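$ ./design --mode recover --in tokens.txt
reading tokens...
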């Protein structure tokens, strides 16, 4: 079964308002309405408009229905006294998860919401302002203010690698190294005394600076475990998050010295860890794909 996406052209001064029909959440300015007998939605991205009509017909029937839809658009133009016309004459049949080009009319698998290709944009997401208000009223977590401000900067970084570096820096800021246990400190002090006796001040300094406190990897693992336990994560998930956070810290150094790359999946995984540390949850929001640059294949 197939639905249809019809790019439409109308004067930029004209537009529509309404609700998405999905609890206030919107994809590309989504406004729900009915197109004749079919559920539909009106969308706008970077000034380009398109309509999704939920036909639920087989491919040939969906294509055969297009002339009737175009006549209805023309009739609506007359009633509203404003020009509204479909863009393009070519019909492209999309597979599951494929992007629609706003230069063509697209037939796509019923129930999906295809992303669109237009300039540098492909998706925009709008949420109810009440969600913004609720977020502003959340109690400020007891974490370093600099870590929160760094997270607020991350989506303005130009590349996947730079966003990864910022997120891994947030983790390192939160991971305060603690003093080692008493037995370990006794060993370190003995090694320091031996190094001093041998007039090796370089070793004394190194042992004093590095070994009296836990390693950064240990500190990262500890704070991730604490956050995961508080957030109700099971042991398998906690261990996975610990590994992701430690690996990110190691990769950060490689990135800063060049010669490495970061995948979108790595960025997404690290962002989940950072949100666990900052807000106590790993579940994303409808805005999460924007920061991750990891768009869902479909949106029902």
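writing sequence...
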């Amino acid at each position: 079964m197939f639905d249809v996406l019809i790019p439409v052209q109308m004067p930029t001064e004209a537009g529509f308002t309404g609700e998405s029909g999905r609890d206030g959440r919107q994809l590309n300015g989504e406004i729900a309405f009915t197109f004749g007998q079919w559920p539909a939605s009106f969308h706008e991205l970077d000034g380009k408009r398109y309509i999704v009509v939920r036909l639920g017909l087989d491919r040939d029937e969906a294509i055969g229905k297009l002339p009737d839809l175009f006549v209805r658009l023309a009739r609506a133009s007359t009633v509203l006294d404003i020009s509204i016309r479909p863009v393009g004459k070519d019909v492209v049949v999309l597979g599951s998860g494929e992007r629609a080009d706003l230069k063509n009319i697209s037939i796509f698998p019923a129930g999906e919401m295809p992303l669109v290709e237009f300039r540098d944009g492909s998706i925009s997401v709008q949420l109810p302002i009440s969600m913004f208000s609720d977020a502003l009223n959340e109690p400020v977590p007891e974490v370093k203010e600099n870590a929160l401000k760094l997270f607020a900067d991350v989506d303005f970084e130009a590349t996947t690698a730079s966003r990864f570096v910022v997120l891994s820096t947030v983790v390192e800021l939160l991971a305060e190294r603690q003093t080692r246990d008493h037995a370990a400190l006794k060993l370190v002090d003995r090694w320091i005394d031996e190094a001093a006796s041998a007039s090796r001040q370089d070793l004394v300094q190194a042992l004093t600076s590095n070994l009296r406190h836990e390693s950064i990897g240990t500190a990262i693992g500890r704070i991730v475990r604490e956050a995961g336990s508080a957030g109700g994560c099971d042991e398998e998930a906690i261990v996975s998050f610990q590994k992701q956070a430690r690996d990110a810290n190691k990769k950060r150094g490689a990135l800063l010295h060049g010669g490495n790359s970061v995948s979108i999946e790595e960025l997404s995984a690290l962002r989940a860890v950072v949100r666990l540390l900052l807000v106590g949850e790993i579940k994303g929001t409808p805005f999460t794909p924007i920061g991750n640059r990891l768009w869902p294949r479909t949106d029902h």
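exit 0
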